[in-house]
């Protein structure tokens, strides 16, 4: 199938007419009803299992998404490559803009994502790339929140009682691992990697996305209760590795929160009562704890400020400026911010975070 010609909305209409999507479910994300329809019953069932804590009865949806499982489509458009993230070399995504929307293509899988004018569609080998579909659904919710005035943060989030804590840091700093250690100590989970922050009354509210943590074997073996994520042979193999070698193993596993921590432990909104920035450098030396003052330490906020990426405009003819670091500093001016530097130590990091949550 060749997908060409017309506006973004016309292209989406063409896909829907050729590949109907009759199988539906409704998700409730922090006051936002998301209606998802799929051409594949198997994909719908996989999504219902993944999002099971967020399934809800139907109602007027704020976001409608259709998923169309097919072969990789031919799309004769001029795509612009997205520059790789810092430290990376491979181009993974490219995009083409229309006056009424955008098309994003994943180079490795050929998946296409079209959105604009309140419409959202994915087409391609969806069933074989469920994780990309899950990310797209969550991205559409993120856009909905950002258009209501939230700032996007790169961080994990947990909550204990009426206090919530965000954990920020560059990729690989240990945000998810620290959040899971806090879960093992009794906290509830808010988000794995993305947080939308907004003012709520006299304080701040953080909102996460319905994405389960994805961790490496080293984390599964060190966080209490997660070793069962690996089979007996895998556990034995990884436990036999030197710790410095184990830390380099990249083999991602989903951690379904409801399965390992019980129902009701995954919520999407919580007060934002504090922020921890992970600035660790290796292991072996003591962790250093330092309270930061805003906006004097605005430079470190770059670890929390998050670019919206390709899944949020502007499109052709639009001029939307990204928030500045000063905007993040102003928003977080009254929130306690702590930096953890020195050696990476999750036991010490957990103690610091629990102390902030119990204030």
Automatic annotation (TrEMBL):
Superkingdom per UniProt: Bacteria
Organism: Desulfoluna butyratoxydans
Signal sequence, start to end: none
GO MF term list: kinase activity
SUPFAM superfamilies tied to this protein: PEP carboxykinase-like (SSF53795)
Protein name: Hprk-related kinase b
This protein's UniProt keywords: Kinase, Transferase
């Amino acid at each position: 199938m060749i997908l060409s010609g017309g506006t973004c909305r016309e292209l989406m209409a063409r896909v829907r007419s050729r590949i109907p999507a009759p199988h539906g479910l409704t998700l409730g994300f922090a006051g936002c009803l998301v209606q998802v329809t799929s051409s594949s019953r198997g994909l719908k069932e996989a999504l219902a299992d993944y999002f099971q804590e967020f399934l809800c009865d139907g109602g007027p949806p704020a976001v409608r998404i259709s998923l169309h499982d097919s072969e990789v489509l031919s799309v004769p458009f001029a795509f612009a490559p997205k520059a790789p993230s810092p430290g990376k070399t491979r181009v993974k995504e490219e995009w083409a803009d229309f006056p009424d929307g955008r098309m994003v293509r994943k180079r490795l899988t050929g998946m296409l994502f079209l959105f604009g004018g309140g419409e959202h569609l994915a087409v391609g080998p969806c069933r074989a790339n469920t994780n990309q579909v899950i990310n797209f659904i969550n991205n559409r919710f993120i856009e909905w929140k950002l258009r209501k005035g939230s700032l996007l943060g790169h961080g994990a989030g947990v909550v204990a009682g009426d206090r919530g804590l965000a954990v920020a840091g560059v990729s690989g700093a240990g945000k998810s691992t620290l959040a899971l250690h806090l879960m093992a100590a009794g906290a509830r989970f808010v988000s794995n990697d993305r947080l939308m922050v907004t003012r709520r009354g006299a304080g701040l509210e953080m909102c996460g996305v319905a994405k389960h943590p994805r961790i490496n074997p080293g984390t599964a073996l060190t966080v209490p209760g997660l070793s069962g994520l690996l089979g007996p042979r895998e556990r034995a193999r990884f436990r036999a590795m030197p710790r410095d070698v184990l830390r380099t193993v990249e083999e991602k596993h989903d951690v379904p929160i409801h399965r390992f921590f019980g129902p009701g432990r995954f919520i999407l909104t919580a007060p934002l009562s504090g922020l921890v920035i992970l600035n660790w450098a290796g292991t072996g030396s003591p962790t250093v704890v330092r309270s930061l003052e805003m906006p004097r330490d605005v430079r470190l906020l770059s670890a929390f400020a998050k670019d919206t990426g390709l899944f949020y405009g502007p499109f052709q003819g639009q001029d939307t400026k990204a928030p500045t670091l000063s905007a993040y500093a102003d928003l977080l001016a009254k929130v306690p911010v702590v930096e953890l530097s020195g050696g990476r130590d999750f036991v010490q990091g957990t103690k610091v975070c629990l102390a902030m949550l119990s204030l």
